[in-house]
Amino acid sequence: MAVCYVARISFCSKREVLCKPMPWWEVDPVVAFLLTLACLLLGYWALAPATATTTIAVTAAVRGVPARMSLPAGKVHFKASHEWQEVLPHHVLPTNLEIRFDLSTGRNFARLPSAAGPGAASGDGSDETSVCKLLCDAATWGKQERVEHVLQSCHWTPEVLSAPLAEAAGRGHLEVCEALLKARADPVGRGPKGVTALHRAAGEGHEEVAELLLRRCQELGLAEPLAVQDDLGRTCLECAREQDLHGVARRLEVKAKAGAVARPSETSGDSYPEAPQLQLRSISVD
């Protein structure tokens, strides 16, 4: 009886040992090695980008070069000069600038020190979207002074000016269009859906703005600006005709074919060409 009891105990203990799960590293040395190697490779792959970025930033700081950082949405780099310029809430100021606070108006101004170089370096293009939005917002409301201030105090390229020029042309803001064209904006630069400023001006019936754009095209030597099509294959004249502005389309076409779009101040009286005199004739209905 005692022997059977001992045998039963030993048998149960062996079964419990066999049923107990073994650690994964004791299953097979080869499998354990491969799993460990895979974990190490995954950890290195996950930490490699952060390590590289940190190394680049530390190296740039050691060499005295500021590391390039992305700006928050809506922020733009401030382009300093030796003249006092107002600092907008959207501006991010560089270092080593002279700052002036106007307590009476609450406005802030900044400029380069007198001992600084000829001017600020060009921007890195990281804020082009924000600069374009600032210009479009000012162009929409016809704020010429704000447009000129953004052009003077921000970094931009001529390609950025196509969208605000189209916005100002579609709203009929002549002064804003003149400021943007003076800054080398393309009068037939393609915007969303291929629409140009000339499309917007003609389609909205702003004939004076369209003439300004045509005159700029002639100054730049652009051939056949009226033939430029959007993504739907429409020219600016077709956009005008779609809005039942046949008179605007006809006058723009006549002036473009004549090869000279005169300024309003250069013409006497009405700036449009005189319509031909109608001749009355009698016809026979027999």
TrEMBL record:
Keywords, sorted A to Z: ANK repeat, Membrane, Repeat, Transmembrane, Transmembrane helix
InterPro entries the record matches: Ankyrin_rpt, Ankyrin_rpt-contain_sf
Q: Which Pfam families match?
A: Ank_2
Transmembrane segments annotated in the record for this chain: 30-47
Keyword Calcium in annotation: no
Where do the segments described as Disordered lie?
Answer: 259-286
User: Where, in residue numbers, are the ANK repeats?
Assistant: 193-225
Output the superkingdom of the source species.
Eukaryota
Spell out the PANTHER family in the cross-references. Answer: ANKYRIN REPEAT DOMAIN-CONTAINING PROTEIN 39-RELATED
What is the name of this protein? Uncharacterized protein
- UniProt organism field: Durusdinium trenchii
